[in-house]
Amino acid sequence: MFELFAQADSSLARSEGGLGIGLTLVRKLTELHGGSVTAASEGPNKGSEFTIRLPLAAESPTKSSESEENDSPAVSPKSLVLIVDDNQDTARGTARLLKVLGHEVAVAYDGLSAIEVARELRPDVVLLDIGLPGMDGYEVAEVLRKDSCCEDIILIAPSGYGQEEDRRRCREAGFDHHLVKPIDYDLLISLFSKPTPPAASHVG
Predict the structure, then answer these.
(1) Domain assignment present for 71
(2) Do 184 and 148 share a structural domain?
(3) DSSP string, the chain
(4) What letters, b where the CB count within 10 A reaches 16 and e where it falls short, cover 170-193?
(5) CATH number of the domain enclosing 99
(6) What is residue 198's predicted lDDT score, i.e. its pLDDT?
(7) What is the per-residue pLDDT across 12-44, written as a single tens digit (0 to 9) for each?
(8) Whether residues 52 and 87 fall in one domain
(9) Which residues contact 99 (CB under 8 A, 6 or more apart)?
(10) What's the structural domain count of the chain?
């Protein structure tokens, strides 16, 4: 139930509504603070109990320890992320997750709109779905890589296909990372913290 988009009602109607991202956000936020979350229920119509466990907060640093903290690596700046996906529910759900984590997010639902938004906003990261109608993700990536405003962006390709041929096409189109759907969101988030993308890293 803590997986993204998981819902108890698996029918096409899904009459209860909801995107199935709420508990995923709870888990992510809890884990970011070093904690854990569990759920328990005796069955239908008997209610549910959710337990969140968090570590005790550390004491405020003393003056003697402040200099040591200043020597620690700086936290990576938050990114401006452009999400491009024709599935609006998926795009909005991913956007909400990234916003909760502190990133600025813009969304586009087709290739041409993605190019316009990228030129206007100059994002740090573009999460670009391959299977777009009309102008697919490969074509969009090639256009962005040739545009002076987008030469240094991190291009991430979510794809339902993970064969070597698919990875090769991603590399040739200019993607830095290739992620097989369903996306491992922990892995996706970790990619944002890299100051410069490794050459064509393909995972999943």
Answers:
(1) no
(2) yes
(3) --STT--S--SSS-TT---S-HHHHHHHHHHHTT-EEEEE-SSTTS--EEEEE-PPPPPPPPHHHHHHHHTSPPPPPPPEEEEE-S-HHHHHHHHHHHHHTT-EEEEESSHHHHHHHHHHH--SEEEE-S--SSS-HHHHHHHHHHSGGGTTPEEEEEES--SHHHHHHHHHHT-SEEEESSP-HHHHHHHHT-SS--TTEEE-
(4) beebbbbbbbbeebebeebeebbe
(5) 3.40.50.2300
(6) 42
(7) 444 455 556 778 888 888 887 788 888 888 888
(8) no
(9) 105
(10) 2
If asked whether residues 45 and 86 sit together in one domain, one would say: no
Q: What would the pLDDT profile of 76-87 be if each residue is shown by its tens digit? A: 458 899 999 999
CB 185 within 8 A of CB 203: no
Within-domain flag for 63: no
Contact (Cβ atoms closer than 8 angstroms) between residue 25 and residue 96: yes
Q: From residue 202, give the alpha-carbon distance in Å to each of 1, 80, 136, 177.
A: 28, 22, 19, 5
Place of tokens 């984590």: 101
Pairing mode of beta strands 36-40, 80-84? unpaired
Look up the domain containing 108 and give its range.
Answer: 80-203
